[in-house]
Amino acid sequence: MPPPRSPRFRAGRSRPSTATGGDGPPARCPATVPRAEPRILMPGGKLTDPFRILFVSTANVCRSPVAELVCRQLLRTALGASVARFGLSSAGTHAAPGVPMDGRAVRLLVSRGLGTEARAFGATQLTAHRLRAADLVLTAGWRHRSAVLALEPAARDRSFCLLELIRLLSRIDAPGLPRDPLARARVAVESGRQLRDEIGHQPRHADEVPDPAALSDYGYAVSVSLVESAVHRFVRFLQPVTCSPEVPA
């Protein structure tokens, strides 16, 4: 199969050159062991690994699990059985393994039809092993990305703040993208890296999802909404334009 075409970038920007939650305080719980994603049987009988996306926040009880569960729900709707081509997980930089999701996050996810998944969720601690296994790492903010790079410096080119990646991908012209969702995911990583190297970092506050731990219920909902909106846009990027999911205003 020929490699996917490189996407075109919006007018006014030169194409980049190739360059190298309620996340509150955790409690102590037993450690968990990372689960290996099963390999995928592709057409022609070829086995391949899924594209692994890792979401990262502080305690892994609000922002990152919301991103994981909502992303999985949207991909399942968009891709059907092909959702198995993506392996989704989340972890916290200061997580207590096994701690359940924050109650306010659970209530918000219940209203999205994700109550069963939210109630069954248990926090996971971020490790270098998990980072090495991930094809794309999406963090709630810059502090989390710094923690990612401290654990695994080699993850630099495939780690982004969630809002940062969405901002960068908005500069890519959809007609230049391949139709295959897995190929589009790889384009997201490579093009995001190229664009970041070209235009540099923006003010850090622009790419932060606020920690909802100490916020009012309204502020908490706003923080979760930021995560959901970004994930919607990311899933839309992974789909051909003709069958993109509707993104809430």
From TrEMBL:
Enzyme class name: hydrolase
Protein name per Swiss-Prot or TrEMBL: protein-tyrosine-phosphatase
Enzyme Commission numbers on file: 3.1.3.48
Residues annotated as domain Phosphotyrosine protein phosphatase I: 51-237
Highest taxon of the lineage: Bacteria
GO MF term list: protein tyrosine phosphatase activity
Pfam families: LMWPc (PF01451)
Region annotation Disordered: where it falls in the sequence: 1-34
